Amino acid sequence: MCDEMIVSQFPDAIICSDVNGKIIRWNDAAVNIFGYSEQEALGASLNLIIPPHLQDAHWHGFYAAVKSGYVKHKGEVILTGAMHKNGTRIYVDMIFGLLKNDQGAVAGVLASARENHSKSK
């Protein structure tokens, strides 16, 4: 129960996807930043929030990380463009990680995001 409370109430967006890029976890902060309800986001592609001109680069890095088990910018905050549900381009500070099962195989991808208000305005 505590784990669920932490994830749902964490002040930064927590977005988890499976290895195919389908959203499997979307917390309240993600709703506030990106505008999509949890029901709208769950099961959707990460393309939901990735601007079209960044999608090729995103998927190249995403699948490379899933295949290698290594995130190029692990632990680094990266400023990136994202899309709000209303079509507005926003900027978010994101940090990425991999979710691994007990055998060490990649089971999903985790991102945490915080809107960068200095760039989004």
Offer a few descriptive terms.
globular, 121 residues, alpha+beta
Report strand %: 25-35%
Helix content: 25-40%
Distance between the termini: 37 Å
User: Which parts are unreliable, with pLDDT below 50 for 5 consecutive residues or more?
Assistant: none
Broad shape: globular
Q: Can you give the mean pLDDT?
A: 92
Radius of gyration: 14 Å
> Order of strands side by side in the largest beta sheet?
2-1-5-4-3
> H/E element string?
HEEHHHEEEH
Please, how many helices?
Answer: 5
Write the layout of secondary structure elements.
Layout: H1 2-9, E1 13-17, E2 23-26, H2 28-34, H3 38-41, H4 55-68, E3 78-83, E4 89-100, E5 106-115, H5 117-120
Antiparallel strand pairs: 1-2, 1-5, 3-4, 4-5
Describe this entry's structure for a reader:
- With 121 residues, the protein is of the alpha+beta class.
- Helix content is 31%, strand content 31%.
- Strands 2-1-5-4-3 form a five-stranded antiparallel sheet.
- The relative contact order is 0.20.
- The model has no long low-confidence stretch (mean pLDDT 92).
Brief description of this entry?
The protein is of the alpha+beta class. The protein contains five helices and five strands; from the N terminus they run αββαααβββα.
